[in-house]
Amino acid sequence: MFKRLVISGLIVLMTMAMLPTSSVLAAPLREDPNPGNGKEAYPRIEKAFQRVNEWYARQGEFLARSGDFITRAEKFIGKAQERGLDTTSLRYLLESFSGSIPAVQDAHDRAGAIISAHNGFDENGKVVDINLARQTVKDAAAALQEGRQAHLGKGKALGEAIKAFWQANKPPRPSDQALPVPTE
Questions:
Q1: From CA 111, how far away is CA 159, in angstroms rounded?
Q2: From CA 80, how far away is CA 73, in angstroms rounded?
Q3: pTM for this entry
Q4: Alpha carbons 52 and 56: distance in angstroms, whole number
Q5: What number of other Cβ atoms are within 10 A of residue 176's Cβ?
Q6: What is the 3-state secondary structure (H, E, C) of 103-125?
Q7: Comparing C-alpha atoms, which of 149, 145, 146, 156 is closest to residue 93?
Q8: Residue 49 CB neighbour total at 10 angstroms
Q9: Which of the listed residues 112, 124, 138, 141 has the most CB atoms within 10 Å of its CB?
Q10: What does the alpha-carbon distance between residue 128 and residue 122 come to, in Å, rounded to a whole number?
Q11: Which residue, among 169, 174, 15, has the nearest Cα to 79 in the 3D structure?
């Protein structure tokens, strides 16, 4: 039982180590990110569209991993409850974390629809209409930012709380106990 608890704790800690320690911040979009309407603005808009696509992919990876993280955290909290430990704060943080996932998913889906429509861009991400392309980048970035704001700080708070809880409540290892000194 003890071995399983230690292994579960290590798995949770390793999972938290894989979570980002800081939020990914996109450069804020100015009112007119690309002054001028000529072809000299096309590369900047194309690059901005590429960054939005990358942000969308990272957010999708987060959403794909979140279910596994929630499951592992629930197991960790369940095992701590079996030991008779107070897990109220961990349960609250987990509910906050998991409660934010639908809002992130909704914003992510909206951003995906905007990106897949790629108004103002051709299939290769090249600008064909500068005004539509700008609006596509702005709308997709706004949807992704909305998803980010819905979840901001909740994963980090949960990870830190689990780590602190583990440090405060981890069972002693057999090697931590004093060994008797042999006498002659």
A1: 27
A2: 11
A3: 0.67
A4: 6
A5: 8
A6: HHHHHHHHHHHHHHHCCCECCCC
A7: 156
A8: 23
A9: 141
A10: 6
A11: 169
